[in-house]
Amino acid sequence: MPTGQRHSSLRWLPYLYAFLLFAVNFVIARRLFSTEFTQHTSSNEGSFMAISRFLVDRWPDVRWFPFWLNGVPFENTYSPLLQVIDAIVAKAAHCSTALAFHAVIAFFYCLGPVCLFLFAWKSSKLLHAGFLSALLYSLFSPSLLLPAVRHDIGSWHNARRLQTLVHYGEGGHNVVLSLLPLALLCAYLAVTRRNFVWCATTGVLFAALVLTNAFAAVDLAVGIVLIAILQPPGSRLRSLALLAGIGAAAYLWISPMLTPDLVRTIHTNSMLLGGYRYTPLVVGTGLLVLAGAFALWCLTRNWANWFDRFAVLFAYVFVAVPVLAHFAKIAILPQPERYHLEMEMGLCLAFVFGARHLLALVRARARAAAMALFLAFLAWQALCYRDYAAGLIQSIDITRTIQYKTASWIDANLKGLRTMVSGDTSTWFNVFSDNPQLGGEHEPFSPNLMADIAVYTIYTGENAGDRDAEYSVLWLKAYGCHAISVPGPRSREDYRPFRNPRKFDGVLPLLWHDEDDSIYAVPQRSHSLAHVIPADADVTRPPIHGLDTSQVARFVAAMENPALPLADFSWQWGTRARISTQAHPGQVVAVQVSYDRGWVATANGRPAAVTRDGIGLITLHPSCDGRCEIELSFDGGAQRKTCLGLSALVMFGVAAAGTLGRVRGRRFAV
Predict the structure, then answer these.
(1) Over the range 29-68, which residues count as b (16 or more CB within 10 Å of their CB) and which as e?
(2) Would you say 548 and 455 are in contact if contact means Cβ atoms under 8 Å apart?
């Protein structure tokens, strides 16, 4: 074949490789594109679908999310980008957010290896090695080297990435893994070409990943540091500074959805909930890992292709994190076991690009035999993955599940009343109902851990003895719950959190019972979320633990006191409420809605102070003497407004820089 024709045919090869990678993964995940609900009702994905449904139904007034944890700012639900994409697809396709969610995550599942191929190929200039590393990533899970992962999935031939996506509902994390190689490729092009378009694209992708899942921040930090330190000696610091500047601008751009307060909340909660501590052992081990990375960087300094070094170092870092957690029980990062998916990507890159050097040492016939064995193994894996996916992705009639039955009964019979929905049903509840619930949230994003402590106390009754039901009812009333669902020991729910599911028998009225699941009423004086109480009955300090309830008991007794006036509470729309009551000096209005610095209030047209009580709820100080009309509204607060201003400034600056660059380019051309 003439050289020109050969080059022409080779130009199509990258497109063919990309198509083959997408097609292989599509064959594996194809059922997910058309599946509304799977049999994995213990997964997290119901909560993501609920957020998407809220966006579809309530747009554009979505700053306050009323369904979980007495209400939370929308950004405290979860990193929102995947849910936003889901809502857009659902709206455009006129389908449920459940069906759209599965189609979206299936698409990104198929796209991930394509992005990995593009990164490996464009960065290394090695087309075939890039394709084979992405093909291996598509059809083998190196994390099965970890005994805990292998025990969980059951076979060397099963797809861990698909299992985490479908069985555990790790949609956000998987989307990050799919787009991470594309973001790193753009970062590499930004530092090597110093082009405005690549810098801007890199910033957009950095922002998109961080807004999809919190693990993206660590993934990007590792990736961009490796890209910078693997540049030629004279440009390493400049490359690191450029990427750090792009990252800072990207954060300012998305800061209205990831405020400093939210970053602090996620960091604090992740450490508390996971029991993570910066102990001397953890710090020392982390320093040893860094020392190992430095040694590996030095040992590979003479390698000709920088991407070979990147693959080895990336794999080293993300092998160290989960391996130390699994075998040595040392967590150098919060939730270290979750990084086994990043480990898979790194090992697939390192294996193929490392094997390339080894195969160069042997004869052509041996190389051909090794390649044939490798491709035969992957063909066998493709069949195994197809069969595994067929068993994993099974559609169900959601209306026959106990989760749906519980949610639909509450929606029909307790319209608008806050309920503590327990077990798996709490995750799925707001896919089917607009009723608010105590719980349902993603705990790392929770702005009020006191409510989570209350839920833990209700579930476990730890150290409560024969007062277990008494403490539970007290917390339910304090947080405005008018009912509680309780899965029994023979419930079809996978997560049955109550240590004593019969503790409410004879204590609370039974409203509904089906199979081994019950709903009990929590009788209260008023259905309102607002209550006039004496100022000295307010909870002034956070309880030390779930049984430290002396002030909580006084607070509940005041709300139940028939001598005090009732308060009418009504939502006007998503971020505004109206309270009508009688109040006098020495009294405050307790509102069973989560406190946030974005709440402002007026009473009879005059500003009223809004403070946080000891259990994370709103206390209003109206200074009324008689009739009291209170307007309560959520305006975001000073921090969010500042973040909005900085975000607008970044967008203006990027637009101005792009325009100036084009103008200079035209002048130069003239």
Answers:
(1) bbbbbebbbbebbbbebbbbbbbbbbbbebeeebbbbbbb
(2) no
Consecutive H or E run containing 134: helix 127-139
Query: What is the identity of the amino acid at 523?
Result: P
As a whole number of angstroms, the distance between CA 104 and CA 175 comes to 9
Strand arrangement of the beta sheet that strand 483-487 belongs to? 419-420, 483-487, 517-521, 510-514
Q: What is the pTM of this model?
A: 0.93
Summarize pLDDT for 190-248 with one digit per residue, the tens.
999 999 999 999 999 999 999 999 999 999 999 999 999 999 998 999 999 999 999 99
List the one residue out of 478, 458, 470 whose CA is nearest residue 559: 478
Contact 322, 336 (CB under 8 A): yes
pLDDT digits (tens, 9 = 90+) for 503-530: 999 999 999 999 999 999 999 999 999 9
Q: How far apart are CA 73 and CA 80, in angstroms?
A: 12
- E strands within 331-412? none
Mean pLDDT over 628-652 rounds to 96
Q: State both tokens at 148.
A: 């805990």
| Average pLDDT of the chain, as a whole number | 94
Where are the alpha helices (H) located in 461-526, listed in sequence order? 468-478
Sign of CA dihedral 162, 164, 166, 169: negative
Report yes or no: 569 and 528 within 8 Å, Cβ to Cβ: yes
Q: What is Dmax (Cα atoms) for the chain?
A: 98
Instruction: For 599-656, give the DSSP string.
Output: EEEEETTEEEEEEE-TTSEEEEE---SEEEEEEEEE--HHHHHHHHHHHHHHHHHHHH
Strand partners, 437: 68, 419
- The string over 591-624, giving b where at least 16 C-beta atoms fall within 10 Å of a residue's C-beta and e elsewhere, is bbbbbbebbbbebbeeebebebbbbbbbbbbbbb
Q: What is the pLDDT of residues 325-338, one digit of tens each?
A: 999 999 999 889 99
Residue showing tokens 């890199």: 202
